[in-house]
Amino acid sequence: MKTNTIHYDYCPLCHGAELAPHLTATDHLVSGLRFDIVRCRACGFLFTQDAPTPDAIGPFYESVDYQPHNNRCSFTSFLYHSVRSVMFRWKYSLIRRHHKQRGTLIDVGAGSGHFVAYMRQQGWQVVGCEQSERARAEAWQRDGLRLDGDVMSVDYPQACADVITAWHAVEHIHDLHGLWERFGRWLKHDGLLVVAVPNCDSFDAKHYESDWAAWDAPRHLWHFNEATIKMLGQCHGFKLRSINSLPLDACYIAMLTEHNKVKGLAKGLRFALSGAVQPQQASSLVFLFQKDMIG
Ligand SMILES: [Zn+2]
C-alpha cells in the first residue's frame, strides 16, 4: 500500500524541533505496514510519524474488524456492543454531574450515532458529525439521524453548544490545533468539553509496548497522556476540570492485543483494576475541560 504521508520535522503540539524515536507500531488491522511513533523531547508529546494525509487515510479504515462502525458477530464485538448501553448511562451521569441542565450537545466523531440517539432520548438537543459515509448512512437507516460530515468541514454557529463530546475522536483528526479552535468557537462561555482518548502512560501501554492495540497506527495520529492533553487544552483556553478512567476499555484493548481472547480478557480485567486504583494509568481517560474564563 503506497500512499502520501506527512513528515513532521517539529512537534505538532509545541513546535519543538527535537524529536526522538519512541517505538514502531505495526498496523495489524489493515495494511501490515509499520509506523514510527515519535516523542517530542521538549513536551513529551507522542505522535505517528509519516502517517497518511487526510486524502490518503481512507483505505486504512476499510476493515470489517474496525469496531466503531461494524456489526460483525465475534466474541470481542459481542462484548463491545453489550457493554455499550452500560457505558452510555455512565457517560450521561458524568455529563450531568458537571452540567446540571439539559441543553445542546455536539458529538464529534459520532460513528453510527448511537450516543447521539441516546442523548436525544434523554431530552437533549443533539447534533453529531462523522467522517465515515457508511456510518452516517447507518445512523440514518437505523434511527433517522442526519449526522453531519467531517468535523473540519462543518460550520456550527458560534457559542451554540453547552457540551461537546469527542469519544475517541481527537486522536483521529489531522488538524490537531484546528480542531480545538473549533471546540472553543462552538462552545458557550461556561460550556463543557468532554474528550476521551487512549492513555499512552497506561499500565497496558507499558506492558504491551509496541504491540499495544491502542497505538492503532496510522488511524491514531496522536497519542496523549494527562500532561500533553492538558497542554493542548491550555493552548486553546481550556482548563482541565476532572479526569476519569474508562475502565472497560482496558478489557477491550487487551482482547484486541492478545491472540487468545480469554487471556486478553483476564489481563484486561487486571489492567482495569489497576487503572481504577491509579486512574492516571488507566487504559483510556476521559478529560473534562471548561473554557478558562480568566485566561
Ligand atoms: Zn512538543
Short characterization:
The chain is 33% helix and 23% strand. It is α/β, with parallel strands linked by helices and 295 residues long.
What does this structure look like?
With 295 residues, the protein is α/β, with parallel strands linked by helices. The protein has a single domain, classed as Rossmann fold (3-Layer(aba) Sandwich). Helix content is 33%, strand content 23%. It has 8 helices and 12 strands. The protein has helices at 75-98, 114-121, 133-143, 176-186, 203-208, 226-235, 248-257, 261-277; strands spanning 5-6, 19-26, 34-40, 46-48, 51-52, 104-108, 125-129, 161-167, 187-198, 222-223, 238-245, 284-291. Strands 7-6-8-9-12-11 form a 6-stranded mixed beta sheet, with helices on both faces. Helix 1 runs antiparallel to helix 7 (248-257). The longest helix has 24 residues, at 75-98. The termini are far apart. The mean pLDDT is 89. Bound molecules: zinc ion. The site of zinc ion has 8 residues, from loops.
Q: Which features does this protein show?
A:
295 residues; alpha/beta; Rossmann fold; six-stranded mixed β-sheet; four-stranded antiparallel β-sheet; 8 helices; 33% helix; globular
Mean pLDDT: 89
Biggest pleated sheet: 6 strands, mixed
CATH architecture: 3-Layer(aba) Sandwich
* N-to-C series of helices and strands: EEEEEHEHEHEHEHEHEHHE
Number of domains: 1
Task: Give the amount of beta strand, in percent.
Answer: 15-25%
The CATH C-level class name: Alpha Beta
Q: What are the bound molecules? A: zinc ion
Helix content: 25-40%
| Sheet with most strands: strand arrangement | 7-6-8-9-12-11
Nearest-angstrom radius of gyration? 18 Å
Question: What overall form do the CA principal axes indicate?
Answer: globular
CATH superfamily: Vaccinia Virus protein VP39
The unreliable regions are none
Structural category is alpha/beta
Query: What is the number of E strands?
Result: 12
What's the helix count? 8
CATH fold group: Rossmann fold
